[in-house]
Design a protein that fits this description.
This protein is an alpha+beta fold and 182 residues long. It contains four helices and eight strands. The longest helix has 33 residues, at 56-88.
């Protein structure tokens, strides 16, 4: 295993969008509440239809429209915001965003977009790492992650994952093929 792995990260729209969907829907499970909301209003709509009183059909239609419409607006809004963010960051063509050094002592991240001091973190300060299709998502806090796209390191993708697992601990490293734990 190498002593240090250097990853000059070039981010593209596809990787950014895939990460945003992973973070929102798989890791944080923000699809659950809209689904429960939709199921509840659908159940109330069915109940309104079963009562068979005057205006039951209208009430059921309103409940179904709201119960199905609001979650669709929620998901559509999220996906639209991700597209806008990707456009603002001008990720097409891919561009250099940061340089990540994985060392025995920890993680060093140098921002390539702004001149600022490099971020230095020990391995104990890192939160989690997720191996997803085409990328590793390295969370350094519950709300901040660095994306390590495949094929950009000075080591193989397998070596990068092995290095992270060895230094962070297997319990903090989750492959998408395994079960995600909170």
């Amino acid at each position: 295993m190498p002593q240090e792995i250097v990853i000059p990260v070039k981010l593209d729209e596809k990787t950014f969008k895939r990460f945003a969907r992973f973070d929102m829907f798989i890791l944080r499970k923000h699809w659950v509440r809209p689904l429960v909301f939709s199921l509840l209003l659908t159940a109330f709509a069915v109940a309104a239809l079963l009562i068979k009183k005057e205006q039951s059909g209208l009430i059921a239609a309103v409940l179904l429209t709201v119960g199905l419409g609001l979650p669709l607006v929620y998901f559509g809004s999220f996906l639209s915001q991700v597209n806008v963010q990707a456009m603002r960051q001008r990720l097409d063509p891919p561009r250099s965003v940061y340089l990540v050094r994985l060392t025995e002592a920890g993680l060093e991240v140098e921002n390539k977009q702004k001149k600022e001091a490099p971020l230095l973190l020990s391995w104990q300060e890192t939160q989690r790492a997720f191996r997803a299709k085409g990328c590793i998502y390295l969370y350094v806090s519950p709300v901040k992650a660095f994306l390590l796209p495949d094929g950009q390191a000075d080591a193989s993708d397998a070596q990068v994952w092995e290095y992270l697992t060895a230094h962070m601990g297997a319990e903090k490293c989750v492959s998408r093929t395994s079960t995600l734990r909170p």
